[in-house]
Amino acid sequence: MKKLSLKVKLTILYTFFMTLVTCLSLAILFSLSSQEILTSVQSALKEQVADSFHDIQMENGRIDLNSDFYDLDGGVYLSLYSKDSDFLYGRIPYGFPSAPPIEDQRLRTLSSDSGKWYVFDLQYQLEDQTTVYVRGITSLTDAEASLSITLRLALIVLPLLTILTAFIGYRMTSRALKPVKRITDTVKRIQENEDLSQRIGLSQGRDEIYELADTFDQMLQKLEEAFVREKQFTSDVSHELRTPVAVILSQCDVLLSDPTYTQEQKEQIQTISRKAREMSQMISHLLLLTRADQGRQKLQLEDINISELAEMAAEEQSLLAARHNITVETQIQPDIIARADETFFIRLLVNLLSNAVSYGKNGGYVKLTLTSDGREATGIVEDNGIGISPEALPHIWERFFREDSSRTVRSDEKHSGLGLSMVQWIVKAHHGTISAESTPGEGSRFTFQIPLKSVSL
Ligand code: ADP
Q1: Predicted structure pTM score
Q2: Which of 388, 397, 423 is the best mutation target for the ligand 1 pocket, counting ligand atoms within 8 Å of the beta carbon and taking the most?
Q3: Which one of 256, 302, 374, 394 has the largest count of C-beta atoms within 10 Å of its C-beta?
Q4: Ligand 1 centroid – CA 353 distance (Å)
Q5: Exposed e or buried b for every residue in 84-110, given b needs 16+ CB within 10 A?
Q6: How high is the pLDDT of residue 65?
Q7: Domain encompassing residue 431
Q8: How far apart are CA 328 and CA 366, in angstroms?
Q9: Is there a domain that residue 155 lies in?
Q10: pLDDT (tens digit per residue) in 169-192
Q11: What was the pLDDT predicted at 264?
């Protein structure tokens, strides 16, 4: 039952109950009516036997039977027996067991190979005081046959009824659950495209599900507004912060060129300047990401040799890595031409490589692989560094996410927690995919794929 859809489950459920109820009612109905039929057959038999006395007369000392005695009124066969149980007159049905003993006023059931009968004997005193017995026989098989026809009919109708119920039930449930499918599709679309502008858009309030969809749409509307506000806020704040940070930086430069300051004071100013530069970089990253969110960040796509860019990025990072005894290895297929934005492609590689160095072990390695299958380019950046815990792994793409600031092995490096968010955006903007695998203590591996002929955004 686990894998079945709700539609099928509901259909099975009420088809089952419908069949159960119908079977039960039919069973009760049959048992009542069969009893009723048998009772009426029995009383008809007794009545016919009792009435038959009118058809028996004495004529000149001999028994004279009226022709009515031979009629099969109500299907009852009548016969006359002497006091010593000898058959005198009347009709016996074909296949009736030969001469069963007379039992006065006792209704019995007798059966033979050819059928079942009700037998009823009744004693009668003729005018000359001779004792005779009238025997009434009626076929039970006939009575049962009429019942069995109805039963057979029911056995044909019942499965048809079940199929019809299942069919109608399935159609009705499908119709009733159609809006649910639409809700699910909308939520999936929102999830896949991260697009909160999607709406379910069912007409208002026909039933509870429509009401739910409507409430859901209202909630999406509120969420979308909140997200837009939040993006606008980040964008505004970043813009507002740009000027003061630029002023701090330029003032630092002015102070550093002032000869009246001591070496110690200059070092302090340099620290302020370094931090201001980090802040400035973070602001520009934030601005880029908010522009990307608002769909305002466009790519400058051109056919570029990404193999050369990869070599350059690796070389640049190997200088930084060398400081920590980390070797940068490359395995780059030459001359891969892809339609990409040069600046962003370099940023993608630099962010991944600098992370690999930052979270690498002293004396370890970082490896950059770039290959192409003619359709898409695959890049892998791997290291044998500290790795990422399985709990943190799904969150590394989130803005400002940092697994644990104390994990950073190099204290002289800047970490804003925006690097991978940007990497993810760059890959998506190039219609590519990116994934990360990692084993804590053993290292991490980031794999991205971008189509060589990227479609312009
Ligand atoms: P940060 O500026 O902190 O490096 P990122 O967005 O680049 O921010 O990375 C987010 C987090 O993912 C990092 O704080 C770090 O915990 C983890 N991470 C990224 N790359 C690696 C790597 N190569 N090895 C281990 N952890 C990594």
Answers
A1: 0.60
A2: 388
A3: 256
A4: 11
A5: eeeeeebeebeebeeeeebeeeeeeee
A6: 82
A7: 301-451
A8: 5
A9: no
A10: 889 888 888 888 888 899 899 888
A11: 94
